[in-house]
Design goal:
By secondary structure, this protein is α/β, with parallel strands linked by helices. It is built from nine helices and ten strands. The longest helix has 16 residues. It is globular.
């Protein structure tokens, strides 16, 4: 299992940006024959608010899941952007276009839509759903865990005593734009995108959603599930015990990767399975 820490210049963000890339190129070793894979299937995996590109690698077993399935996982940093284009920082284009193009040029990745997925947790689930739908010609599957679908009518409310920076009007206008009412009816809103694209009869990506039944975002995830169902969009929505934490996300990212059409393979040699079949 190879883990690359990459820094490259992003034209969409106008600066050097970091990311981790998991690539199971050295999966078979200790004298065993290495399986040759010409082009890896890829999951672009997004972090949540106040997180960064290290979150998934340090807080979950994503490295093991990637190795088990011969899956490349790309983990960029999205700051607190909701992965939307804003001002001079085009986070949506960075995720939906630039990083896909860059990684495909830099690593042996499949260029096929059916081999390219996007996923994330909380803010990252919002970003995965929005950008997976907006760039539906690129992504064949979307994984959204505990989605922070917070761009709704409540966004218009000016919270007098915000408990979190994301509740402030300054933050909301920075990420969604000065006209919040217009943002609700734009492609910045995953719900609006679902309804709009359904009318266009596009080929929707496969969608996997999950949320903990005790998560404070549970009802917002239920609403997205309802909108998908009302528009006859095929999707999977799993609910299990859990809150907004890594115990839930680690459990369900494994379920989600098992759900992807990847095929299963044997685990590579590592400190946790030396001598095991």
């Amino acid at each position: 299992m190879a883990v690359f820490e990459v820094n490259f210049y992003s034209d969409k963000l106008g600066r050097n940006v970091p990311m981790y890339v998991i690539l199971p190129t050295d999966k078979y070793y200790f004298g065993e024959k290495k399986e040759e894979i010409e082009a890896y299937k890829t999951l672009y995996l997004l972090h949540g608010v106040i997180g960064n590109y290290t979150d998934w690698l340090y807080n979950s077993r994503i490295k093991k899941y990637a190795e088990d399935h011969d899956l490349c996982v790309v983990m960029p940093s999205g700051d607190n952007s909701m992965y939307l284009d804003q001002g001079v920082d085009y986070y949506g284009e960075f995720i939906g276009q630039e990083i896909v193009e860059f990684t495909r040029k830099s690593f042996p990745l499949s260029h096929k839509r059916c081999d390219t997925s996007i996923g994330g947790l909380s803010m990252g689930a919002f970003g995965a759903m929005r950008n997976g739908l907006k760039y539906h010609d690129t992504f064949g599957a979307i994984i959204a865990l505990s989605g922070a679908y917070v761009l709704d009518e409540e966004t218009l409310i000016d919270v007098k005593e915000p408990k979190f920076p994301g509740e402030t009007m300054t933050y909301k206008k920075r990420v969604y734009g000065d006209d919040l009412s217009a943002a609700l009816k734009s492609d910045k809103n995953p719900v609006y995108l679902i309804e709009t694209l359904a009318k266009q009869h596009i080929d929707f990506p496969e969608i996997y959603m999950a949320c903990g039944s005790e998560d404070f975002l549970f009802e917002k995830n239920n609403n997205v599930d309802r909108v998908l169902s009302e528009n006859h969009i095929k999707h999977v929505y799993e609910v299990g015990p859990g809150v907004h934490d890594w115990n839930f996300w680690d459990t369900y990212i494994e379920k989600a990767i098992n759900w992807l059409p990847l095929g299963r393979s044997t685990a590579g040699k590592s400190s946790e399975n030396i001598g095991l079949e």
